[in-house]
Specification:
Helices cover 25% and strands 47% of the residues. The strands form 7 sheets. It has a 5-stranded antiparallel β-sheet with strand order 13-11-17-23-22. The chain has 388 residues and is of the alpha+beta class.
Length: 388
């Protein structure tokens, strides 16, 4: 096995020899103790042979009237030849690889997830003080844990919880603000009134007196829970009424939907990806690649002469919808669209009770549908009580 491997990698040459009486020349080669690894007679005046490269000089000394040309090579000599031809490409790939490893250990973006800009700015400054910022090397897990612990200890009154996650060349920082109880209670005296017209379906009162019943029709501004506590038709005490009122309310929604529909919809998923560009090919260094995406790229390194570059792509995932609908399908899509308009504005515990199509108009390129909705909705509102 060892000898076979040595033979494979040993330098060999394939020669084409031409001339009269080839057999005589072959015998002469053998007399000179030159190893003939392979002999292929093409015709009486031409033969192809394979010899070790070390015997080539010896062969040239005895060639006499015979002509021979090197037509192929094998082993180390061939590998060296190939490496020499592609040396610039190989050097570029090696440099690109080490550059990629280097850049993969650098942070290009820090995303702090929180609604309060003041808290985001505070965290950004603190992280910078610990060496966590853009265009700096990543910290290992132990270093990140130490940074988290020190920031939490420093801002016990402001930060409840902190998490720092490394995703590729990006840090994602999630933070939970510490909520300090507010002992300043609102003592404004109020009634609970109807925010809009509807039929009452549920009344929950924690303070105050309920003066309207379930299934009563109320108009916008009508008092449902009063802050005036009555005794023998007299106001004995005025308080702040509190509670919640749910009612059946109504909406008319008119929507249009085309027969041909195309949309590129962003789904909210984003990431930064290192991309190696060579000629017209791209190599992304990322897992779970987006099939359809919008990309903005910025050059990190670009070779002035070779067609190779390294870029950072800011990718955002998209979904493409390209459809042609029948009239019935377009009407169905219109109703779905109308329902979405309603549900997008509903809060917790609110829902659509029922809906009915009032009118369908078919145009040349679209349908127009009017839909009537009955909705279970919170109609709680407040009106200040002015004492005489």
């Amino acid at each position: 096995m060892k000898n076979k491997i040595i033979y494979i990698f040993k330098s060999k040459l394939k020669l084409k020899i031409t001339g009269k009486n080839i057999s005589r020349f072959i015998k002469k080669i053998m007399d000179e103790k030159i190893d003939l690894l392979n002999i292929d007679y093409v015709n009486r005046n031409e033969v192809n042979i394979i010899i070790y490269k070390k015997d080539y000089d010896k062969l040239t000394k005895i060639k006499s009237i015979y002509d021979f040309n090197i037509i192929n090579s094998y082993g180390i000599i061939k590998i060296k030849k190939r490496l020499n031809i592609h040396k610039y490409l190989i050097i570029s790939i090696i440099i690109g690889y080490f550059l990629l490893v280097f850049l993969n250990n650098i942070i290009f973006e820090i995303e702090i997830i929180h609604n309060d800009p003041n808290l985001r700015n505070l965290l950004k400054k603190e992280l910078y003080n610990y060496g966590i910022s853009e265009k700096k090397f990543k910290k290992n897990f132990k270093q990140i844990e130490i940074v988290k612990e020190e920031i939490l200890n420093k801002y016990k009154d402001k930060i409840e919880w902190l998490e720092i996650i490394n995703e590729g060349t990006k840090y994602i920082v999630r933070v939970e603000e510490r909520q300090i109880p507010n002992n300043n209670k609102d003592t404004t005296l109020t009634h609970i009134i109807a925010k809009k017209d509807g039929i009452i379906k549920r009344v929950d009162a924690t303070s105050g007196e309920i003066i309207r019943d379930v299934n009563d029709y109320v108009k916008k501004g009508d008092i449902i829970i009063t802050g005036n506590l009555m005794l023998n038709d007299e106001i004995k005490q005025t308080i702040k009424a509190s509670g919640q009122v749910f009612a059946e309310v109504w909406y008319n929604v008119s929507v249009e939907y085309p027969f041909t529909y195309f949309e590129e919809k962003k789904v909210g998923k984003k990431k930064n990806v290192l991309v190696l560009n060579f000629l017209n090919k791209k190599m992304e260094f990322a897992f779970n690649k987006f099939k359809q995406k919008e990309s903005k790229e910025s050059n990190i390194i670009k070779h002035p002469f070779l067609p190779i570059s390294l870029t950072l792509e800011h990718q955002e995932k998209i979904e493409v919808v390209d459809s042609v609908y029948t009239v019935d399908e377009a009407i169905s899509k219109s109703i779905e669209k109308a329902k979405k308009q309603i549900t997008d504005n509903l809060k917790e515990k609110e829902y659509i009770i029922d809906f009915k199509t009032l009118k369908e108009v078919v145009k040349e390129d679209r349908v127009i549908v009017d839909v009537f909705f009955t909705v279970y909705e919170d109609i709680t509102d407040f009106a200040e009580i002015v004492l005489e």
